[in-house]
Write a structure and sequence with these properties.
Helices cover 57% and strands 10% of the residues. The chain is mostly helical and 221 residues long.
């Protein structure tokens, strides 16, 4: 598949297109793969997100900045960004990963996105990598409400229950639907002491748990 559509989505043209090709190569496909670029891209991403939060939200303290950063760079968020630019369509995967739906697996596409950031950094330096990353994380930055904690839903729910001296929630996988490459998970969150049961949906079990926890937090309020 031609990479021109992907580079257009990134807003960056590579001088050495081989770097992008490597960033899109999963270890199941062979060597060289994207693991080293992912390692580099992870560090660049954290630096860019940290500065973006620092510069934009002058009144947020270190703890809140750390929580908001964690929310932006977590696997689910990165997978969402990767899906928005259809990154999975360009991945080079081994036969096993190909057949098991690796193009849509959050862990694989999130890692590949970090590798792409690393590739931009190697190709053109920090400023260009920062520009690409900032453009892609703008929706996440725009959704931040400074007077909220920035905690993910499962953490917020756990802390709310602990404050009431209640038992921790129980998460149970209820169902898995769809083909391997486009599965949807359904998870139930149970809070026995309050007789609360919520159902969350997501492209991974973790995302479904977060969705169920968010609904439970809303019920607690």
């Amino acid at each position: 598949m031609k990479l021109s559509r992907l580079t257009a989505a990134l807003g960056y043209e590579f001088r050495d297109i081989r770097l992008l090709e490597q960033a899109l190569t999963h270890r199941s496909f062979g060597i060289p793969n994207n693991e080293r670029l992912e390692f580099l891209g992870d560090s660049v991403l954290n630096c860019v997100v940290s500065y973006a939060l620092y510069a934009r939200f002058e009144k947020l303290q270190e703890g809140d900045l750390s929580r908001w950063r964690a929310g932006i760079v977590r696997q689910e968020s990165l997978a969402g960004i990767a899906n928005s630019i259809e990154l999975g369509d360009y991945l080079k995967l081994g036969d096993g990963e190909q057949k098991s739906g690796g193009r849509q697996r959050p862990s694989i596409i999130a890692d590949a996105l970090e590798a792409v950031f690393g590739a931009v950094f190697v190709d053109a330096g920090f400023d260009q990598a920062s520009r690409v990353i900032n453009a892609l994380i703008q929706p996440a930055l725009n959704s931040i409400t400074p007077n909220e904690s920035g905690k993910d839903a499962k953490t917020a729910l756990q802390e709310a229950l602990q404050a009431r001296s209640l038992a921790l929630p129980h998460y149970e996988l209820v169902a898995t639907r769809g083909a391997a490459h486009e599965q949807e998970f359904q998870v139930e969150c149970q809070i026995v002491g309050l007789n609360i049961r919520t159902i969350g949906l997501g492209r991974s079990r973790r995302m479904a748990e977060q969705s169920a926890a968010k609904l439970a937090v809303e019920e607690l309020k």
